[in-house]
Specification:
With about 120 residues, this protein is mostly helical. It folds into 2 domains: about 50 residues; about 60 residues. The chain is about 50% helix and about 10% strand. It has 2 helices and 3 strands; from the N terminus they run E-E-E-H-H. It has a 3-stranded antiparallel beta sheet. About 0% of the residues are buried.
């Protein structure tokens, strides 16, 4: 999907004369996008009009959603690093043993090749 540009424009008072919704004086316009199933098609969405309060609410809610996404990503990265540390520790112990535990080494190598879901 093509990343769309977003632009904001405050409508002038002349543009709002006779408008049934003069409070919606902020225009949010999106650039062209490309549907993922059609490589040669381009869609230009219609602009959206918002009130300034709606714009602030949109900003706050999108900030909260991005914060939750960042926190979840950090939790997943911490879990991955812990799992990787366990694999490293178990593999090192098995390799340093005089008679290495083959099944443990196979599990460590399997986990490094195909991590799958992380268990904490």
């Amino acid at each position: 999907m093509l990343i769309s540009r977003i632009s904001l424009r405050l409508l002038s008072s002349e543009e709002l004369v006779g408008d049934p919704f003069p409070d919606a004086c902020v225009q949010l316009a999106f650039g062209p996008t490309r549907p993922s199933d059609q490589a040669d098609a381009v869609v230009v969405p219609e602009p959206v009009r918002l009130t300034p309060a709606d714009l602030v609410r949109l900003r706050v809610e999108s900030g909260l959603a991005l914060g939750e996404i960042r926190a979840e990503m950090q939790r997943a990265e911490i879990a991955w690093r812990q799992q990787l540390s366990r694999w490293y520790r178990d593999g090192r112990l098995a390799a340093e043993a005089r008679a290495p535990d083959i099944s443990l080494l196979q599990r460590v190598l399997g986990g490094l090749r195909n991590p799958g879901p992380v268990t904490t």
